[in-house]
C-alpha cells in the first residue's frame, strides 16, 4: 500500500472477545499490542498517522481499567441529535437486510414507527441512545416492535411492552444465527437464568440508592436465591476463584461499569434497571399469592418468610413512581391475584402500624435487612429500614386501591382504609397521623416525599390529620369526607376533585393549593389561608369562609353554589373577582331551575363586573343545553358556540350545540355536530344515548324533525 495513506482501523465487538476468550489476561495483552501499534505509528515515518478505534460494552474492561496503556484514551458516545439519527437511519437502510431493497423498506418503516403518535415516549427517548437505537431498530425489523402493539395501552402498559420485548430479543435473538442462540454458550446460562440475573441486578441497582450496584452485592443476592441457574453460576465462579463468569454474563447485555465505582455496574439507560427491579418484585409478589395443599388454604410463602421478603424488597429506601408504574402494570399483565396480594400486604401494614416488627424480641426483620444493606456499604439503620418498608407497603396498598376502584370486579374487594372503615367501631382516626409522625424521624416532611405523590384517589374519610405537614401532597380525587385538617400545612397541595364535604379545615394553610373541582360542601374553612389557592369549579355549598385570608391570586371563578357560602368577610364581598364569581354561580344554578332569562342576565352581569372573567366551557354548555330544553334555543345558541370554541375536542359540547342548531333550523350544522359527537367516542356502545343520536341523525338526514315534545321530554 501507499505509505502516505493513513488508515483508521475500527475493531468492533471488544466485549465479544471477552465472552469468547474469557480470560482478562488475554484482553490486557491485546490492548497492549494495540497501544504498541499506535506508539509505533506515532514514531515511525513509515507508519505515521495510523489510528485504532475499539468499540464495545465497557463492562469488559473490569479489572484492567487501571492497567490500560496511557496512550489509549476512553471515549463515550453522546445522545443523538435528530439530524444524526436521520443519518443513522439512512445507513440502517443499507444493512437491515441482505436484500438492499428490503433493507431500505425496513429502515423507512422504522423511521415511520418512531414518528407514529402510537409510539410511546419511552421508545422515542431510548432511540436517542446510539447503543440502544440499534436494539430498537433490530427489534422492529424482526417484527417484535410495532406501533399497533401500543393501541389502547396506558403509559405503564406501553413501557412494560417495550422492555419485555427488548429483553426477549436480547436474550433470544441478539446473538443467533440460523435459529441457533449463542448466548448460552457465551455466558454459560440459559435465557431464563440470564433474565433472572438481570432482574436481580436491577433490584440491586435500585436498592443501592445510586445508579449502580457492586458486583459482589449481585453475587451475594444470587447466592441466596433459590434459582438453579444462579446457584450454578456462583458455584462455578467460586471454584475458579473468579467472578469472570458473572461479569461475562453481565457484559453480554446493556450494562456498563459505574463511573468512579470500581467493580460496580449500571444500566446504560436508567429505566431498564427500574423495569428489571419491578420485574423482580412482581416475581416475588406473585409467589406471595400462591396457595398450596389439598384445600389451598396455606400459602407457599409462609407468614414469617413473607414478612421478611417485604423488608428485603421494600426496606431499602423510597419507591419511585417509575418502579411503581412498571410494577402495577406487570402485576395486572401477569394476572396476579390482586385481592390476595392486597389482603396480605394489608395484614403486614396493620402489624407494622402496631410496631410488631421493630419491637420484636431477638433479631428483628428491620435489623436483619439493615445489616444486609450495611454489608453492601449502604448506610441504613433498622429504624430507617422499618419506616421505608412500611411506607412502601402503604404505597402499594394505595396503588392497589386506586386500580381496584377503577375495575368493577374489584370495587368492593380492594378498598384501602388507612385508618379503618369510617363506620366501624375500631376506626383509628389518628393512625395515619402517627405514621406521619414516625416518618419524621427520617427527615422533616419525609411522609410527603415518600408517599405524597401516591395519595391520589385515597380514602381518608374521617381521618384525623390535624396539624400535619402535607405540603405538596397529591390528594387529587381523594375521599376526604369529614377529615380533620385543622391547622394542617397544605401549601401547594393538589386537592383537585377531592371530596372534602364536612371536612374541618379551620386555620389550615392552603396557600397556592389546588382545590379546583373539589367538593367543599358544608366544609369549615374558617381562619384558613387561601392566598393563591385555586377554587375554580369547586362546590362551595354552605362552606364556612369566616375570617379567611386571601389575596388577588386566589381564584374564585366558576366556583359552584358560591352564593350560598357563609361567613364571607365584607371586604371579600366587595372584591370584583369574588362578586363576579358569586353572580356566575347564581346564574349556573338558575339554569338548572329553568330560569333561563335570569341566568343569562347573571352571566352577563358577572362579565360586566369582572371583564377578565373567563367563563368555563361547562358553564356555557349547561346554559345552552337547559336553555334549548326550555324553548329558548335561539337565545342560548351563542353559549353553545362559546363552549365548543373553548374546548373544540369535547364531544358532549358539540352534542349540545347540535341540539340547539337543530331547534333553530340549522339542520346541516346539527348533523355535523351529532356526527362529530359520535366520532369523538363520548358515548360508548352500551350507552342508549348513542342509539338515540344515531336515530336523530337518520331522521334529520331524511329531512324530518326528530325533536317532538315527547322526545324533548326524555332529555329534561
Keywords:
mainly alpha, 9 strands, 716 residues, 29 helices, globular, 51% helix
How would you describe this protein?
With 716 residues, the chain is mostly helical. Helix content is 51%, strand content 3%. The chain is built from 29 helices and nine strands. The chain has helices at residues 14-21, 24-43, 82-95, 100-115, 121-126, 130-141, 155-172, 183-187, 191-207, 215-224, 228-239, 244-251, 270-288, 303-314, 321-333, 338-353, 365-375, 382-405, 431-439, 446-451, 570-574, 576-592, 596-609, 617-628, 633-646, 651-663, 667-680, 688-701, 709-715, and strands spanning 8-11, 51-54, 176-177, 180-181, 213-214, 255-257, 264-267, 291-292, 298-299. The strands form four sheets. The chain has a three-stranded antiparallel beta sheet with strand order 5-7-6. Strands 1-2 form a two-stranded parallel sheet. The model has no long low-confidence stretch (mean pLDDT 87).
In short:
By secondary structure, the chain is mainly α. It has 29 helices and nine strands.
Spatial shape: globular
Mean pLDDT: 87
The total count of helices amounts to 29
> How many beta-strand segments?
9
* Uncertain ranges: none
Q: Considering DSSP H and I runs of 4 or more, what fraction of the residues is helical? A: 40-55%
Radius of gyration: 32 Å
Largest sheet features: 3 strands, antiparallel
Structural class: mainly alpha
User: In angstroms, what separates the terminal alpha carbons?
Assistant: 92 Å
Biggest sheet strand order reads 5-7-6
Beta fraction:
under 5%
